[in-house]
Amino acid sequence: MTRDLDQTVFVAGHRGMVGSAIVRRLESLGYTRILTAGRDDLDLNRQAQVDAFFQTHDIDQVYLAAAKVGGIQANNSYPAEFIYENLMIESNVIQAAHRAGVHKLLFLGSSCIYPKLAEQPMREDALLTGTLEPTNEPYAIAKIAGIKLCESYNRQYGCDYRSVMPTNLYGPHDNFHPENSHVIPALLRRFHEAKLRGDEEVVVWGSGKPRRELLHVDDMAAASVHVMGLDPDTYTANTDPMLSHINVGTGVDCTIRELAETVARVTGFPGRLQFDASKPDGAPRKLLDVSRLKTLGWQAGISLEAGLADTYRWFLEHQDRFRG
Length: 324
Prior knowledge:
Blueprint lengths: L7 E5 L4 H13 L3 E3 L11 H10 L4 E4 L7 H6 L1 H21 L4 E5 L28 H21 L2 E7 L1 E3 L12 H15 L3 E5 L5 E2 L1 E3 H13 L2 H6 L7 E4 L5 E2 H12 L4 E5 L8 E2 L4 H5 L8 H15 L6
Parallel strand pairs: 1-2, 1-3, 3-4, 4-5, 5-10, 6-9, 7-12, 8-13
Antiparallel strand pairs: 8-11
């Protein structure tokens, strides 16, 4: 694997959890020309702005980490925003990259692209073989469209646009909103605040039985840079050209109950756990088959407990921004 550290690399969504981790990873490897743009300077929902940005800058690679994301409640409450904004972001960036002659791009999707009842662990070829989980179907459809955009530009124009499908991510810069966050930041905040109040129990949504695979965002960033850095022959030799996406995960899952118990240990909450089965569980299990990525030379290295402890430390250092 060879890397040109002087290439201009645009990280779309650099302020988000995944984008900021990719920037950290690129910096640690010695990349010297990392291009970023905040929403005040570049609204990725606006086609004209995105086109002008790509025409103005001489970009060699793009990491498309920008997205509208949220947990079950957010997806249920704002389905129109989730499908519209994600479709606009990926369409505008991928088309603008092509117009500007950018040959290499990495699109970051989500494991929710797979059917709700897909065989576990979920392989890449499970895509479009069954019904999606209803609670996040609009978001999943937008991510599937992103994969197909990359495949189509590769097939028609000879681009090298790759897609990685991460499992459930967590880590520094996550969204710790009390209602619109994913499961790990929601649990970390809930257990932390319960500890401060001296509560005797914490209520966790759902039955606690669903199983989830969880990946620290720094592992995700490392995998993304690894996949982007593979030479085309190595990549295509291990990837069906008509199935361009690659799963990224740990290959290990746990129940929501086990996750909540680990969060209680990490945060130091001494009380009881109560599960509210009247709340939605989501998919019964989401475990990725990561054998393709292992064949390409990468596997996760951060354990769940160590990753949760790292995330909790970051939350404690930045909790003032989440008050209210």
